[in-house]
Amino acid sequence: MATRHGIDLDKARALHARETADFLASRPRSLSLAQRADEHLLFGVPLHWMDDWPTPASLYLAEACGARLTDVDGHVYADFCLGDTGAMFGHSPAPVAEAIARESARGMTAMLPGEDALWVAGELARRFGLPVWQFALSASDANRFAIRWARAATGRDALLVFNGCYHGTVDDVFVDLVDGAAVPRASLLGQVYDVTEHSRVVEFNDLAALESALADGCVACVLAEPAMTNIGMVLPDPGYWEQAQDIIRRHGSLLLLDETHTISCGPGGYGAAHGLRPDMLVLGKPLAGGLPAAAYGFSAELAARAQQAKRAAPPGHSGIGTTLSASRLACAAMRANLAEVMTEDNYRIMFERAGQLAKGLRELFARFALPWCVTQLGARCEFQFAAKPPRNGSEAGAAQDEELERCIHLYLLNRGLLITPFHNMLLLSPHATEGDARRLLEAFGEWLEGVAA
Question: What are phi and psi of 89, to 5 degrees?
Fold first, then answer.
């Protein structure tokens, strides 16, 4: 009997084959649309990573509302993926939908400021403690622009990231740590220059490595999630960020926090909840309730340095910003979402539901004596195939098992339970119910009954 992570692989594979057949037999309309998509869509999907779901053919969406999805064949799903955070507060929150309907008839974009932008910037300043803001279409753009401002303001060229990080489609961050050396990430397509010339990488939670990488005074900024979320959840050691911030500032570098996922920790993200003091901060996906929008903030000192750098530069395009950034429609959606959806009350509901689910998962794994761990980060929780929570990207990467993930995810999906396809993350919106969590735990338990070694 072949086993891995406490699972009988022969049983898991046999069950997965049956689940694959069930998926195809019960979703004829999705299958038909997937076959049609091959004609005009690269990889048969609008964006190639949509092909990463654990399904034998693309699952086509009919509608989504709150914590529910309905596919084109009429199957309804409790959604624990929520657009990988884009719909963290539920699909089509009523205040956001109303703002979009109202404002879309009054001019969607004009490359001119409106009053909503002022309100949003003021609210972001209140929540995150950074007084000056700019807008973008996505966290990828916001990170890219923030890196440019950091380099312009400091006169330094290097960027430091943590091994296993993901900060969107920013070329500079696609570096991995292999045998102690920085190397370009092998999966990055079409890259024509060596990103390690200007990017450095160290392990998360390694203060000595951070100190060493910053010592020559060439790093403009450290770009980090305050807790890693994209290679599997990795939390900071107690006291890590207090010491790391001191190291970063002592070497004259800036701290740029990407809170796109860790906004699950509260209205001001992880940084506000834990007293971090970033020089810049990026917030993306959920900011406008699912409409493309992002924002990035500056400390007062850095804002002054950034403005000085722009005024001292020759006239012309800075390479920062896009025409549709801060559109009238996006600003209206951000205002509605911040004012009426991203509220303390909704966060309390989300934290409670996530805590219940995390507790249930731990009890389930203990019942089957599995060497798996569960980590919670506010409204987000994740299970990993490791006995102890990983402390860095290398440990988190080693705990991943794509085959087992696909088996688990498809089994749950066939029972109306959708979780994030890229790893084992579960996100709880304010619309999630105790019944949703209970159904997930029951289905997961049934899968383990059939495949545990």
Answer: -100, 15
